[in-house]
Design goal:
Distance between the termini: 81 Å
Shape: elongated
Radius of gyration: 55 Å
Largest sheet: 11 strands, mixed
């Protein structure tokens, strides 16, 4: 792209400045755009972080813990067929919805043994690991063997035999040490009255079974650390179920109250599925979202929304579809259909076998938000109710930092705890609000002290809302030996974690006191992050210290750069660099771990420690980092555009010739209104024209202006002059300056002047309010009078009733003289006309009043309009004559013409009176106007007493014409 900035010749310095600024900002905009583009092209692709084992951390793995579960399902005769279906569906959801593929599941149906050959238990599914699709399909197939027992199969309820069978299964050796759990699903109470193994006395058999539970079964469950989670429906009794829950081991996966074994009863079999899944989730410290359901009709598709929370690290979307032929697809919060197997983005997917009434999609590192489960049924699939939910868990780790690392007795110590998941430290305020942070201090000789933690920026907390929960504790003054600081994190759906930090009580002041600080910001993989270590040598002896990294998360690959070893040789304060080398294979995100300064000769002694929190990523492009420059540049460009528009509009208006009228006359003697001949004029075509072209023709030695210029004709061209007035370019190329309202000679003895006909803004406002005008103009008393000013300014034109542009003679003090002249002229005209009264007083444009010989008054009216009309208008050759009356004597007409200039001589630049040629008219023409039209805004006697005639009559005037403007000599 090429930008050209040329220097334009312009006499106005403002425009030169504007052009320069425009060029500067154009270059600036291109620089910004080019910088953004270069940054985008130069940014490399982030290298994939190689996975590293996650089980090497001090406080455990970030994988979901597998478990070993036995599901006991009641098959007694009190069940209905619908109950059996619900039990099967619930067992299927537990089998396919378990979060860990390494978990083992067994399903056992139970009834009673009432006759020889009957078995109280039916292990339909042996202990099976969910590690493969084949194993999952095996579980789905064997669960279908659950059924309602008949009398010949033993259809009573033997809970003792069922729990003993589950304990036997859970005693099988397990190299993974999976936590065991029993899920008991039953519809009734213990009933073994027909089972001979509980004694010969039928009435004592059920009591004997309860005693066996208390004396043998429950102690065995506690010994094996097996909790029992009962779920009852139908005729089940809450008291009996509570006995089962209390009889098992009272172990919990967390300190949350809901994670301890409890019994619950559902009132409807439709609630079995959701309740059983919730119990199973609580048993492994997971959570279940509410089930969404919909009616899936044959040959149709339905969507069921489910939500995965932000803190979830593992989730299983469980779907109860009923018919194996129903097809299920899963859409993430972005609307993308995710794969059933394999990775997509940061997530990994694994769908269970779909050849059953239930299926699930296990997601590692799921994208939080609203997901969509889409179920589609073919035309051969009957309508059914379908449902879906999410079983999720957040797997986290905790980190703890103690400052100072080796505290002294009686001194205050700050304790800081933070939590992380697979993505790094958790700093989201909403997610952290669901968690519980705790810390404690204990030791062999120190009683346990709980340390309240908060992330509010107060006390020991360095910054509010940064995800570090801090508190302080004072070491007892008599403390000695080992101190153990423990940090715990727990919450709903969170597998609790705990991390310990052990240290020794300092016998005296520590030899070294240090503080580690690292820079904030974003660093690309492979970068070197340089911080500092502020170290104080307290004893003055030389010491060797070393920087070490530990507790790194699985995606962070970093080492301590040179110098890792710090040698101190003198007492006092000194600063040393702390360099962290990020591997090019370090994953994008925030690192987590600890950076410690330890004694090089005794690594068990820590002088200082800090959380390692480095934002790894590629720096933002220059244009993105300096976004404010874009805003400022955009604002300036908009401002310059506005200035350009305003100035262009002002220049356009300054060049506009709208309202300009150019008049011509013969120098001194010719084409003057005093001779009765018109001024020639041309007017600009309208608003927006910046030039006015015209020619001067000499037809029969009678010069005239012509505003219509033929193509190629040599014309006069007028335009605005920067210094005021007009610049006139002649056909010969000469340039003349025309000041406003001044006559300027041109060739052939002619003179030109120009006038402005457009009113000023102040005059327009005064007319809009009905006010008067200045400069000798008669003041209007109303809005109608103001409209008269508009008509008067626009100029009378031949054959119309509008006024031509000109200068009005003032009416002040001139009425009396004009009336006297008019009276004398009327007398002369009456004397020259036979049959008229010499005492005639009034002659108007539209009406004449005469006296007949008998003294009566008479008026002549225009028969066409029915209005009063003077008889002289009917004379031949008069404009507007429409009657057949006899012509007036020629002497009268010539006398009127001769008296015209003497009675009311017009001034130069004014339009002629009615019947007298005005500008733009040729000699010998006369104006015509409608007769008898009433004036607008003025009464007939608008000139006061001085204008009344001797007999008291008032001369009528057309349209309220002001005195001296358009007057007609009565002797015409």
């Amino acid at each position: 792209m090429v930008v050209g900035c040329s220097r334009t010749r312009n006499t106005r310095s403002g425009w030169r400045t504007f052009n320069a600024l425009t060029c500067v900002f154009a270059v600036l905009a291109l620089v910004l755009i080019g910088s953004a583009a270069s940054q985008a092209q130069a940014q490399p692709t982030a290298p994939a972080a190689s996975p590293s084992p996650a089980g090497q951390l001090a406080n455990g793995s970030l994988d979901v813990k597998p478990l070993r579960a036995v599901i006991l399902v009641d098959e007694s005769g009190s069940l209905t067929q619908q109950d059996v279906v619900k039990e099967q569906q619930a067992a299927e959801l537990l089998a396919v919805g378990e979060l860990s593929t390494e978990s083992q599941v067994a399903v056992v149906g139970f009834g009673s043994s009432d006759q020889p050959g009957q078995s109280p238990t039916d292990p339909v599914c042996p202990l099976t690991e969910r590690s493969s699709a084949a194993n999952q399909q095996f579980l789905l197939d064997c669960i279908t063997k659950l059924h309602r027992r008949s009398d010949t199969e033993g259809n009573n309820t033997d809970h003792v035999a069922a729990i003993n069978e589950a304990l036997d299964i859970l005693r099988q050796p397990d190299s993974r040490q999976r936590p065991p759990v029993i899920i008991l699903l039953t519809d009734g109470v213990l009933d073994v009255g027909n089972s001979p193994q509980y004694g010969p006395d039928l009435s004592q058999r059920t009591a004997n079974a309860r005693a066996q539970l208390t004396d043998s079964t429950f102690p065995q469950a506690k010994a094996q650390q097996v909790p029992i989670w009962p779920l009852g429906f139908g005729s089940a009794q809450q008291a009996d179920l509570d006995t089962f829950a209390a009889g098992g081991a009272q172990v919990a996966c967390s300190d949350q109250p809901a994670s301890r074994p409890t019994a619950r009863i559902v009132t409807s079999t439709s609630d079995i599925i959701q309740s059983l899944v919730q119990i199973f989730a609580l048993a492994r410290c997971a959570q279940v979202t509410p089930f969404g359901s919909a009616q899936l009709n044959s040959g149709s598709t339905v969507d069921i929304p489910v939500t995965i929370p932000d803190i979830s690290t593992d989730g299983s979307i469980v779907v109860l579809k009923g018919n194996p032929k129903v097809q299920v697809s899963y859409l993430d919060p972005d609307g993308t259909v995710v794969p059933r197997q394999g990775p997509l983005g940061d997530s990994t997917f694994e769908a269970s076998a779909g050849n059953g009434g239930a299926e699930s999609l296990h997601i590692l590192n799921p994208k939080p938000g609203r997901w969509t489960v889409r179920l589609t049924a073919g035309s051969d699939v009957p309508s059914a109710q379908v449902a879906a939910a999410v079983v999720w868990q957040g797997v986290v780790q905790s980190l703890i930092v103690v400052d100072p690392p080796t505290p002294s007795a009686g001194k205050s110590v700050a304790v800081r705890v933070r939590v992380r998941n697979r993505e790094g430290p958790i700093t989201d305020t909403e997610a952290l609000r669901q968690l519980t942070f705790r810390a404690a201090l204990a030791g062999p000789d120190v009683p346990r002290v709980d340390i309240p933690l908060a992330d509010d920026g107060k006390g020991a907390d360095l910054k509010a809302g940064d995800g570090e929960y801090s508190g302080s504790v004072t070491i007892p003054s008599d403390a000695s030996g080992t101190l153990v600081f423990t940090g715990n994190v727990d919450g709903p759906g969170i597998a609790p974690v705990s991390l310990q930090y052990s240290t020794q009580v300092a016998a005296g002041p520590p030899p070294l006191t240090a503080n580690i600080s690292l820079p904030t910001g974003r660093f690309r993989p492979g970068a070197i992050v340089t911080g500092s270590v502020q170290l104080v040598n307290n004893d003055g002896l030389p010491h060797n210290a070393r920087l070490v990294l530990d507790e790194l998360d699985s995606r962070t690959q970093a080492t301590v750069g040179d110098p890792a070893l710090i040698r101190t040789v003198s007492s006092g304060r000194a600063s040393y660099p702390a360099r962290i080398h990020l591997s090019p294979r370090t994953g994008i995100g925030t690192t987590s771990g600890r950076l410690r300064l330890v004694d090089a000769d005794n690594p068990g002694v820590t002088y200082a420690q800090s959380f390692l929190t480095i934002r790894v990523g590629y720096p933002k492009p220059w244009a993105e980092r300096y976004w404010w420059a874009w805003l400022v540049t955009g604002a300036l460009l908009i401002l310059l555009l506005v200035i350009l528009i305003v100035r262009w509009n002002a220049r356009r208006k300054a060049r506009d010739l709208g309202g300009v009228v150019i008049s011509m006359r013969r120098a001194k003697t010719g084409l003057s209104r005093r001779t009765g001949k018109p001024n020639q004029f041309v007017k600009a075509s309208g608003s927006g024209a910046d030039t006015l072209s015209f020619t001067i023709t000499q037809a029969k030695n009678n010069p005239s202006l012509n505003g219509i210029v033929s193509p190629g004709a040599k014309a006069y061209v007028a335009r605005r002059s920067p210094s005021g007035g007009l610049e006139l370019t002649t056909p010969q190329g000469r340039t003349l300056r025309l000041p406003q309202d001044k006559w300027v000679p041109i060739e052939e003895g002619l003179e030109l002047q120009y006038t402005e006909s457009r009113p000023s803004g102040a005059a327009v406002r005064r007319r809009a309010k009905g006010g008067g005008t200045n400069d000798g103009e008669r003041s209007g008393g109303s809005g109608q009078a103001g409209r008269w000013e508009d008509r008067r300014r626009s100029g009378w034109r031949a054959g119309t009733d509008r006024a031509s542009t000109g200068t009005e003679r003032s009416s002040t003090g001139g009425d009396r003289a004009r009336q006297e002249r008019r009276a004398a002229a009327a007398q002369r005209a009456a004397a020259a006309r036979p049959g008229t009264d010499a005492t005639a007083k009034t002659l108007d444009i539209h009406e004449t009043t005469t006296r007949t010989p008998d003294g009566a008054r008479a008026q002549r009216r225009d028969g066409r309009r029915g209005e009063a009309r003077p008889s002289w208008l009917d004379a031949p050759g008069r404009a507007g004559s429409t009657s057949d009356a006899e012509p007036e004597p020629s002497a009268t007409a010539s006398g009127a013409a001769a008296d015209r200039s003497a009675v009311a001589p017009p001034r130069d630049g004014e339009p002629g009176g009615y019947g007298r040629p005005g500008r733009g008219e040729t000699a010998g023409t006369a104006r015509s106007r409608p007769a008898g039209r009433p004036g607008r805004g003025e009464p007939d006697d608008n000139y006061g007493p001085a204008s009344r005639e001797d007999d008291g009559t008032v001369p009528r005037r057309y349209g309220g014409d002001p005195p001296g403007y358009g007057d007609v000599d009565p002797d015409i």
